[in-house]
Amino acid sequence: MADNKGVLIFGEVIDGKLAASTLELLGGGRGLADTLGEPLMLALVGSGVGACAKEGIAYGADKAFVVDDAALKDYTNDAYVSVLEKVVKQVTPNILLMGMSPIVRDLAPRLAFRLGTAVSMDCLKLEIDPASKLLLMTRPVFGGNARGVYVCEKAKPQMAAVRAKVMDPKPKNDSKAGEVVNIAAGLDASKLKMKNVATKKEQVAGIKLEDADVIISGGRGLASAEGFKLLQPLATALKAAVGASRPPCDNGWVSPSIQIGLTGKIVSPSLYIAVAISGSSQHMAGCSGSKNIIAINKDPEANIFKEARFGVVGDFNKVLPAFTSKVKELVK
Amino acid sequence: MPNMIVCVKQIADPEAPPTSFKIDEAAKTMVPAQGVSQVVSPFDEQAVEAALKIKDAQANSKITVISLGKNFVMDVIKKPLSMGADELILLQDPAFDGGDSHSTAYALAMAIKKVGQFDLIFCGRQAADWDAGQVGAGIAEILGIPSITPAKKVDIKDGKVTIERVITDGYEVVECTAPMLISVSNELGEPRYPKLKGIMAAAKKQPVNWKAADIGADASKCGAAGAKAKLMKIFQPVKEGKCEIISADTPEEAGAALAVKLREARLI
User: Which of A49, A61, A84, A207 could form a disulfide with A42 if both were Cys (CB 3.0 to 4.6 A apart)?
Assistant: First the structure.
């Protein structure tokens, strides 16, 4: 265990380029590696991902490990855990960082158990403890109502899955040198039980939540799919995306793909207008990064008013149409 | 007719207002105010629902619910039985105190080994208190079976399992062979309400109580002794809480005044 050295990033490739989250991890991981005086390394696993190794080095890695195999084209838990186990046992890193992607949500816990170590999911902050030189990992607990600071003292590597936009990428340096090492996947097809047979993407009409500067979001208080339709004229007027807290998604009023919260999308628009949303921790964990939160809710005690900059206490059926019509008049 | 196991956790109601939880720094946990009720963690109820959907469609299916915890409230922890599950096993032992995902997964896996036969194990994607999201993967690793998270739909036919796994803007369809473990997400849909008949049937059922020794658990792998992650501290982020409430004589006027206010603040 004492021999574990270096910060290893699990990189993800999207459309032939390193994912934004991977560039962020390389930026943040570089800082941690420099603090420890240890190297920063990148692991790329998939099919046709080898071409991105140089890009990883340009963004800060000292060394890149590539497992490029046609059998790894689609993610499956058993194949990826097996490959990552092999890579980590060969590289023996001190710290393993991953981005909080759909792959990592499934991969990281299983890999941690395989390696006999612990992982902290959805981390908001990573730092090296000056005394112990161990990684301190801060993550939301109790539905985002509190933060816990975790440390892994007994095992290596120390593992963290980091939320998007928590770290900043470093500028690209194409002249930076670094070694690329190929590792064979070594998969035993007879042992693999999982198969990805289809990927279904739901097309959301209009502006994507992740890209929106303004979001109109509705909650349980809207009471029906019809109630949700009242949000659309306002969204159109403000060129906004429409989001939802969990109950409208669970009740089938809207698609689960627009859920904002700890277990949905994490957004940080300039303006977040919350209509009939009580403001549970679970929901706020997904939108508290918004620059301005505006609340319309009939309950003056609703938690959302503790987070909002401006608010109206009242029934959305009466407040919202008048608000929308005035907004249309003002932004014309 | 699959044999199914569902792991559930009893927690303080996460829907209670955030202000009704306070930090206990010494115990490093969140303490609910008096009056906050205990519930089955919501994702775990959805895990029960996933198993019940299969039971609805396939005769002679069996659902065994296992919960590790303490201070169980019988009306609460029996809810999966009143929803339609068949048996309930409670793991209670001071040896389990102070555990993390590793020690919890170990104890649950040992209990599942004692139960013996199973085709599918269901968990919630994460307990709504610590939100770690790892116990399912841990149980599967210890039992040496495949695992997947977060699932929104599960089907099993002739030992072949089909899972819809939630990803950004959609889902993946994954096929696997039983036995396996599936962690269920809220996208599965609202769990059913117990019917009176189910509540009456559950009232008559007695849970099975197992201690660490009953499941052959190694004390060094249980509770605090078996934990790998250490919580150094817990804190609540500071909130400013300076909301300007726009009031007017009627809700309609307040709505219009809000629009004017946002314009003045250059937000629209």
Answer: A61
